[in-house]
Write a structure and sequence with these properties.
11 strands; alpha+beta; globular; two-stranded antiparallel sheet
Length: 222
């Protein structure tokens, strides 16, 4: 019995070390809070890998429905290995608005985080040709968190608030932003939503070279 308790404890410690960020028992991304402001935070995120799909059109809600169906099928086994992939959070949508072009439609890129336990393995290749992997280097974001089940207009309002709050920060991007939800649709209360906007940081030459090598390796896999 003592041996079993010891093994169980060791396993729990190992899992905790590997997955120190959990949201309602689901793997999320570890990050460091660099600065806390009254209505937003500045965070540093580690390198991550995502499975993504994109769509252009006038409706954020419609694009999210279409793209989520594709991504959900992938983690449910619609890949060349036929493997089920553990759920992660957040579900992220990158929004690239139109600027000054009346014929342009916004572009939406929805992404699911690839679990850490697959980082040392070959990622299951999607059978849907519209899906692709994105390996991202460490990034810094300004982040605004809020609850509820936001409508399309509420998402845009929260993104605009964050843009206004960081208006004097020249490092904050102005050509895109990210919408993130952390909870499944059936979670009715205490929901967590976030808007992220990228903040540029200077990279060391060694870090940039490593990212390029990793990206080339990922392209070979895909």
């Amino acid at each position: 019995m003592k041996v079993w308790i010891l093994l169980t404890t060791c396993l729990a410690v190992q899992i905790g070390q590997c997955l120190s960020c959990l949201h309602r028992g689901v793997e999320c991304i570890d990050y460091e809070v660099l600065n806390r402001h009254p209505e937003y935070e500045e965070r540093q995120y580690p390198a991550t890998v995502w499975i993504s799909a994109k769509e252009s059109g006038p409706s954020l809600s419609r694009a999210q429905i279409n793209l989520y169906k594709k991504l959900f099928r992938y983690i449910q086994g619609d890949n060349l290995k036929g493997e089920f992939i553990n759920s992660t959070t957040p579900t992220r949508t990158k929004v690239i608005p139109c600027k000054g072009d009346s014929l342009c439609e916004p572009t939406y890129i929805m992404s699911l985080l690839i679990p850490k336990d697959l980082y040392d393995d070959t990622f299951p290749i999607p059978t849907d040709v519209d899906l692709y992997f994105e390996r991202e280097p460490p990034r810094r974001y300004v982040v605004r968190s809020f609850g509820g089940r936001p409508s399309e207009s509420q998402w845009v309002t929260e993104a605009q608030k964050l843009a206004d709050l960081t208006l004097k920060d020249l490092g904050v991007a102005r050509d895109h932003y990210y919408l993130n939800w952390y909870d499944p649709p059936l979670q009715l209360f205490n929901r967590l939503n976030e808007v992220w906007i990228t903040k540029s940081i200077k990279k060391k030459a060694s870090e940039q070279k490593k990212f390029i090598r990793d990206q080339n390796d990922l392209n070979e896999v895909c």
